[in-house]
Design brief:
The protein is of the alpha/beta class. About 50% of the residues lie in helices and about 15% in strands. The longest helix is centred in the middle third of the chain and has 29 residues.
């Protein structure tokens, strides 16, 4: 399939590469042209405006995937694309957007006959080699039309049609809320080890590796933590400042609105707020994990 990729950041660039590995033709476009030039050298077709991108997508319907920061940038691109694309064309929005925005955007594009698909994507900077777990919302017939794209991006059994518009990003939102809780538990556990009378004898890199050998708390996050401790045994190079991307807040708001108790996720979110005022060891663990799986910026000591 021929597909346009707008946004060649940490995720978008490697997603374009993985699509090409899967036999798809990629027409790439990015705000800064150097990224476009980079992917052209790897076999993609480049474009330097939305109009040029649309013209180079010569298959019908045209398919465009947006990998942009949530919020204003997406709305601005959708407004421009609505005036460029034709009825029947498809836009996939793969950023970390709020599902309520999907509903609004789908209705806006429907007025021009353009299909809108929301895709929650997890995989971070490791997605090129491991694949991207993809959660999809929108019209089911459009999902099936695009299935070869999702299959190329994902590992085996790594994509799912979740339901109508917004369902993909809703499931991804809850996924990220769970991630907050898991990371917080690891952070607190290692903080207890660090504060223990045995701390000077404990090798956190080896403990992380040990716990991934058949224990009930083994996980990919723990493997990433093992890697982080291998480079910096006590994470001394990091500040415990932990940002949040918004999805944890939305998860907590949804818990309040639906009357579902979510104390672990809520506390994990509040702990991130607190991290911006102190340099606790558990927060350095969280900062290290975000750097490992997502390439998120960290603050150095």
């Amino acid at each position: 399939m021929k597909i346009g990729m707008i946004g060649l950041g940490r995720m978008g660039m490697n997603m374009a590469r993985r699509l090409m590995m899967g036999g798809h033709q990629v027409v790439a476009c990015n705000r800064s042209p150097d990224k476009t030039e980079e992917i052209i050298k790897e076999g993609a077709e480049g474009s330097f405006s939305l109009q040029e991108l649309a013209e180079k997508l010569d298959e019908q319907p045209r398919v465009i995937w947006l990998m942009l920061p949530a919020g204003k940038a997406i709305d601005e691109h959708l407004e421009k694309l609505r005036n460029i694309l034709s009825p029947g064309d498809i836009i996939v929005e793969g950023g970390n957007s709020r599902y309520r925005d999907d509903i609004r955007r789908a209705a806006y594009l429907k007025g021009a006959g353009i299909h809108f698909v929301d895709a929650g994507v997890s995989g971070g900077i490791w997605g090129l080699s491991v694949g991207y777990c993809t959660m999809v919302g929108g019209e089911e017939k459009v999902f099936h039309y695009l299935e070869s794209v999702f299959k190329s991006l994902a590992p085996a059994d790594g994509y799912l049609y979740c339901g109508p518009t917004g369902a993909g990003h809703f499931v991804k939102m809850i996924h990220n809320g769970i991630e907050y809780g898991m990371m917080q538990a690891y952070g607190e556990g290692f903080a207890l080890l660090e504060a223990s009378p045995y701390a000077k004898h404990l090798d956190f890199n080896k403990i992380s590796h040990l716990w991934n050998q058949g224990s009930v708390i083994r996980s990919w996050l723990l493997k990433l933590l093992e890697d982080a401790f291998a480079r910096d045994p006590r994470l001394d190079e990091l500040s415990g400042h932990v940002d949040d991307s918004g999805e944890g807040r939305w998860t907590v708001e949804e818990a309040i609105a639906s009357g579902v108790a979510a104390p672990v996720i809520t506390m994990a979110l509040f702990q991130r707020f607190q991290s911006r005022k102190e340099n606790a060891f558990e927060n350095r663990v969280l900062a290290a994990l975000r750097r490992e799986f997502g390439g998120h910026a960290v603050k150095k000591m």
